[in-house]
Write a structure and sequence with these properties.
The complex is a heterodimer of chains A (about 120) and B (about 110).
Chain A lengths: L4 E3 L2 E4 L5 E6 L6 E7 L6 E7 L2 E5 L7 E4 L6 E5 L8 E8 L11 E2 L3 E5 L1
Parallel strand pairs in A: 2-11
Antiparallel strand pairs in A: 1-3, 3-8, 4-5, 4-9, 5-6, 7-8, 9-10, 9-11
Chain B lengths: L2 E4 L3 E5 L4 E3 L1 E4 L5 E7 L6 E6 L5 E4 L2 E4 L9 E3 L8 E8 L7 E3 L3 E6 L1
Parallel strand pairs in B: 2-12
Antiparallel strand pairs in B: 1-4, 3-9, 5-6, 5-10, 7-8, 8-9, 10-11, 10-12
The chains are: A mainly beta (about 120), B mainly beta (about 110).
């Protein structure tokens, strides 16, 4: 099936540093997403992004978080500065433009495990 | 707000056993319902979906029927294999909000040979 690539697979940084997580979505997809999963807990929606803009974000998407996709390159999640509670696996996903009447299928990458020390 | 409840946190079966994982949802509108499967070290993979009442989704021997009356979308498989061992997530989504998916907590299925 369609593949979403995430780089890197693991990232270890010190608290207070900046980190950028990279996602290469499926080539003809137009909607992009980030989800956060703390070990042993459920996947939680952070943000979705379309046509250069954030469409919706959750309470977990703190002011220290930002997303962008400059010129069709990687879709990125930047955290600046990082905090201990940001340690989690971050999953990127993408989907085609959805119809009004039903939700499109999301395709996920393998995740980036972020450890903040 | 909208939510998905999976009652089984873990299910342990032997090969050829029958599988049921219960999924109930609470939603203000008419969402599409999904099952995703996640293998260790990977992201969730789409298994199948259903978009309207009484519609059955299926894939790889797994199936579930959208039941608006009982607000359920239970996952079933007649005969599980060891290779089915994974975490299974039920999810709901709306097209009008940019296709955001809301996931249940997941059910870890372990199948012994």
């Amino acid at each position: 099936g369609p593949k979403v690539l995430q780089i890197p697979s693991h990232q270890i940084i010190d608290m207070g540093q900046m980190v950028t997580l990279n996602c290469d979505p499926v080539s003809n997809h137009l909607y992009f997403y980030w989800y956060k999963q703390i070990l042993g807990q459920q996947m939680e929606f952070l943000v979705n992004f379309y046509n250069g803009k954030v469409m919706e974000k959750s309470k977990l998407f703190k002011d220290q978080f930002s997303v962008e996709r400059p010129d069709g390159s990687y879709f990125t999640l930047k955290i600046q500065p990082t905090a201990l509670e940001d340690s989690a696996v971050y999953f990127c996903a993408s989907s085609r433009l959805g119809a009004r009447s039903s939700a499109e299928t999301l395709y996920f990458g393998s995740g980036t495990r972020l450890t903040v020390l | 707000g909208d939510s998905v409840t999976q009652t089984e946190g873990q299910v342990a079966l032997s090969e050829e056993d029958f599988l049921t994982i219960h999924c109930n949802y609470s939603a203000s509108g008419y969402p599409a319902l999904f099952w995703y499967v996640q293998y260790p070290g990977e992201g969730p993979q789409f298994l199948f979906r259903a978009s309207r009442d009484k519609e059955k989704g299926s894939s790889r021997g797994f199936e579930a029927t959208y039941d608006k009356g009982t607000t359920s979308f239970h996952l079933r498989k007649a005969s599980v294999q060891e290779s089915d061992s994974a975490v299974y997530y039920c999810a709901l989504g709306y097209g009008s909000s940019g296709n955001k998916l809301i996931f249940g907590i997941g059910t870890l299925l372990s199948v012994k040979p």
